[in-house]
Specification:
Chain lengths: 133, 442
């Protein structure tokens, strides 16, 4: 009887797993990470989404916790800081140097799904979560 | 420097990436399934105990047993694992200083800590077989002679393992700077020394009670189709029989509570509530994380112990014995939680161990396996697959837990055995729903 019960449950959970088309993802070879310009890039395409973040007097403004984007969306992250720092986007492995008074920009395509931390690299302080779905 | 940089840690030791929240429909489906199955189980499952614990199983072919139990094979495997462990420690202490370039944090927090799960679920008490600490101890004991306090070992139960696991999960989930290679190296050395000293004092039986990693692997290994019967034969058996055979000893509840509570805290630390609320300074100080970890463990303990005590009152059994009697039923739930929270880490960020293994000490021009310089492929598994595995793992763990608790309840017999199970089943549903909601809000 307990074997039957376990089999029924496995079947039901299996149905849920089998119902989506994405389950058979072909193995992807290791891809080199995209290199990001640390300096301001040429003007972004009209469809790019811009996110402005300011770091002043130890406070973060311009974002609330997480930023949700669609997979494949073009993003432009713009940062202004009153201290020397470095922006780091995890996963995508993008960096930008921050100099007080000089805005820095990272432009890229959000093609990796998941939730990635964008942080101030020197302080190790998280700025926001970039959620790509 | 490698072209990917998981420098600052996310909640779970190392890693650049967290999972997306599971889709709501999937979580509701899972929760609903868990509830329905729980009540079906109570109503329909057997009235006499069916599980036979360590007496169960079909013997594996004699040649398999002969190979696995052959001292030559055992020692070869142990020496290989010892060599790899020493290599990881060496890389941690004298390898590249940056977490980006050092395989040790990945090897510890991902390849080992998470990898223990599938290895033990498939192979049984895998770490007990290969434990490098046992290998080292075997060598040292030859010099130091018999252990003075061997007789006192049984009274310790699993408490030392609970403490050892608590220390490790605190390191893995709380300490800022936990991804620093030197921190990892120091931890491994100190842990090894403490364990070896204890084993020299209490004998080699210490590891089965005091080495958190071995106890974790042995508990998970109980869910493997392969096990050792009480007459010593290696057998093929139902995971339910395997877990049913867990020996009830003092501290077993503590071990399971640390496992469940710590995975619960891992889930909590990925929520918006935590990142913007109590945990906003967690990147700087260990205080909020320590508090959060202890609260989650305490919460799990309160719920489980409360439910089993209530069950004991209903069935007119000694309440004090109840938590220990039912602790085994939480093992699949703990395993389900752990799989849900960590399996994508193993498959994605875990690639880092193999990438960095091509140049463990960061020397110029070294690329042993041709992988050095590769980036982690984060597209290897899709979010959909991840979400489905997460929910399935939690629900399956729940179902196994309910079945195990049921069998134990009918074995214990007594007054009102059916309604006596309700408190524990309710708490299990609570754990499952709680676990699923943490996945929803990551």
């Amino acid at each position: 009887m307990h074997r039957l019960l376990v089999a029924v449950v496995l079947l039901l959970t299996g149905c849920s797993a089998g119902s989506d088309p994405d389950t058979a993802t072909p193995p992807a070879p290791s891809v080199p990470s995209s290199s990001a310009p640390a300096a301001p890039s040429p003007s972004p395409t009209p469809t790019a989404r811009t996110i402005d973040v300011t770091y002043a007097a130890g406070e973060i403004s311009g974002v609330e916790g997480r930023v949700e984007v669609e997979k494949g969306e073009q993003l432009v992250l713009r940062f202004t800081s009153d201290v020397v720092e470095e922006i780091h986007v995890h996963g995508y492995d993008l960096y930008a140097d921050l100099v007080p008074g000089q805005p820095a920009q990272i432009a890229f395509t959000a093609d990796l799904p998941g939730s990635y931390e964008v942080e101030l690299h020197e302080a190790g302080r998280p700025l926001f979560q970039l959620r790509v779905s | 420097m490698i072209a990917w940089a998981p420098d600052v840690v996310l909640a779970h030791g190392v890693g650049s990436r967290s999972d997306l929240p599971v889709p709501l429909y999937l979580a509701l489906y899972g929760a609903g399934l868990a509830v329905v199955v729980s009540f079906l189980a109570l109503a329909l499952l057997w009235r006499v105990p069916k599980l036979r614990g360590d007496a169960a199983g079909i013997p594996l072919p004699g040649v398999v047993q002969a190979v696995i139990d052959a001292p030559v094979v055992r020692w070869l495997v142990r020496l290989v694992v010892l060599a790899l462990t020493l290599l990881v420690v060496a890389v941690a202490l004298v390898g590249p200083a940056s977490p980006n370039d050092n395989l040790a944090p990945y090897a510890l927090y991902v390849t080992f800590w998470v990898g223990l799960i599938p290895a033990s679920l498939l192979l049984g008490a895998f770490w007990r077989y290969v434990n490098p600490l046992r290998t080292l101890h075997a060598g040292l004991a030859r010099i130091t002679g018999p252990a003075p306090a061997e007789g006192r070992l049984p009274s310790l139960g699993y408490w030392p393992a609970a403490v050892s696991l608590l220390v490790f999960v605190w390191l893995e989930l709380v300490l800022p700077g936990r991804a620093e290679p030197r921190t990892v190296g120091v931890f491994l050395v100190v842990y090894g020394v403490v364990q070896l000293v204890a084993a020299l004092w209490f004998g080699s039986g210490w590891f089965a009670r005091g080495d958190g990693f071995e106890v974790y692997s042995t508990l998970l290994g109980r869910m493997s189709p392969f096990g050792r019967r009480d007459d010593g034969r290696l057998v093929l058996r139902s995971p339910l029989d395997g877990i049913d055979g867990v020996r009830v000893e003092p501290g077993l509840v503590a071990v399971v509570m640390v496992l469940i509570g710590s995975t619960g805290f891992d889930g909590l630390s990925r929520t918006q509530f935590w990142a913007e609320g109590p945990g906003r300074d967690a990147y700087l100080t260990a205080v909020p994380g320590t508090f959060g970890l202890l609260v989650m463990i305490a919460l799990a303990t309160l719920l489980f112990v409360g439910a089993t005590l209530l069950g004991g009152l209903l069935t007119r059994h000694s309440p004090r014995a109840q938590p220990g009697l039912f602790a085994h039923s939480l093992v699949p739930i703990a395993a389900g939680y752990a799989i849900a929270h960590y399996f994508s880490l193993l498959l994605l960020d875990g690639q880092a161990t193999w990438i960095l293994a091509s140049n463990p000490f960061g020397r110029e021009g070294v690329d042993l396996f041709g992988t050095y310089g590769n980036a982690i492929d984060y597209t290897r598994i899709s979010p959909r697959v991840i979400a489905n595995v997460q929910v399935a793992a939690i629900v399956l763990g729940h179902v196994l837990g309910v079945v195990l608790a049921h069998d134990r309840a009918v074995r214990a017999g007594g007054h009102r055995t059916t309604s006596g199970q309700l408190p524990l089943v309710a708490v299990m549903v609570g754990f499952t729903v709680g676990g699923l909601s943490l996945l929803l809000s990551s």
